[in-house]
Amino acid sequence: MPTSAYTQRRSEVATYFDKTAVEAWRKLTSDAPVSKIRATVRAGRDRMRNTLLGYLPDDLSGRRILDAGCGTGAFAIEAASRGADVMAIDLSPKLVELAQERLPKDIGSGRIDWASGDMLDDRHGAFDHVVAMDSMIHYRTPDLIEMLGRLSARTSTSIIFTHAPRTPLLMAMHTVGQIFPRGNRSPSIVPVASKTVHKTVTDHDKFEGWNIGRHSQINSGFYLSCAQELVKV
User: Fold this and answer.
1) 38 vs 22, 57, 221, CA distance in Å?
2) Strands 223-232 and 155-163
3) Rounded distance between C-alpha atoms, residue 195 and residue 59, angstroms
4) What is the C-alpha to C-alpha distance for residues 178 and 156, in angstroms, rounded to an integer?
5) What is the distance between the alpha carbons of residues 188 and 177, in angstroms, rounded to a whole number?
6) In angstroms, rounded to a whole number, what is the distance separating the alpha carbons of residues 88 and 66?
7) For residue 111, how many other CB atoms are within 10 A of its CB?
8) Phi, psi of 92, rounded to the nearest 5 degrees
9) What number of other Cβ atoms are within 10 A of residue 150's Cβ?
10) Structure confidence at residue 2 (pLDDT)
11) Using CA atoms, how far apart are residues 119 and 151, in angstroms rounded to an integer?
12) What is the C-alpha separation between 105 and 124, in angstroms, rounded?
């Protein structure tokens, strides 16, 4: 069962991306001119998306993938072009609409089903792979582990997700962000150390039959994120 903290944070994230940040994300995820700071974020996200794609087979024909937090659809489109059957879901209906607007006429042999809602909704069925790029970074570590555990029950091969690393720089940014008034800024990122993720997954009953896989960290100006793979054995 989702905790009250998870439910509250999910609501905050949904409101931010669907109400406050739509135009900013429209620009950030396009080739429109942006500030130098946002340019580093754009470059970092591009590198991270390519990293996560690199954790998947080149040929995804016959594979069903959950793009958990699909945003404007760049990952889903690339996976479908490799032959995947993609379930692309995001909390923000407006971002999903934008993703559909950007869908190329030809995405190869794959397909994409779009939805807005909770990535944990088990009505969407089972998957070979789950990919969650920067969609779990706003949640407390216990909720992050619970989310991964619930997804693992419906995933046969791998879960690939990102988390915010617990570094001195990111912790300082996080602390400053807690001091300033919220205004229209995004829900805070919750840093977690990679060793904490590894130990929790290794020790938790929910992840019996799962191993820690590949791990990468992307540093690009104001973008700092870790990719982590969990592999079913």
Assistant:
1) 15, 30, 9
2) antiparallel
3) 32
4) 39
5) 7
6) 6
7) 12
8) -95, 110
9) 17
10) 76
11) 9
12) 25
The answer for residues whose C-beta is within 8 angstroms of residue 107's C-beta and 6 or more apart is 77, 80, 81
Task: State the pLDDT confidence band at 168, using cuts at 50, 70 and 90.
Answer: low
CA distances from 123 to 63, 119, 157, 232 (A): 18, 10, 19, 22
Rounded mean pLDDT of the chain?
91
| Structural class in CATH, domain 4-232 | alpha beta
DSSP letter string, 73-117: SHHHHHHHHTT-EEEEEES-HHHHHHHHHT--S--TT-EEEEEES
> What span, in angstroms and rounded, lies between the C-alpha atoms of 84 and 88?
11
Report the distance separating Cα 20 and Cα 118, nearest Å.
19
More confident of the two residues 128 and 174: 128
Cβ–Cβ < 8 Å for 103, 76: no
What the block records as the tokens of 128 is 């070979």
40 contacts 222 by C-beta, under 8 angstroms: yes
Render pLDDT for 20-68 as a digit per residue (tens, 0 to 9).
999 999 999 999 999 999 999 999 999 999 999 999 999 999 999 999 9
Environment class of 173 (CB within 10 Å of its CB; exposed 0-12, middle 13-18, buried 19+): middle
Q: Are 215 and 40 in contact (CB under 8 A)?
A: no
Contact between 63 and 57 (Cβ < 8 Å): yes
What is the residue whose two structure tokens read 């693992």? 152
> 3-state DSSP call for residue 227?
strand
Q: Which amino acid is at 104?
A: P
Report whether 53 contacts 131 (CB < 8 A).
no
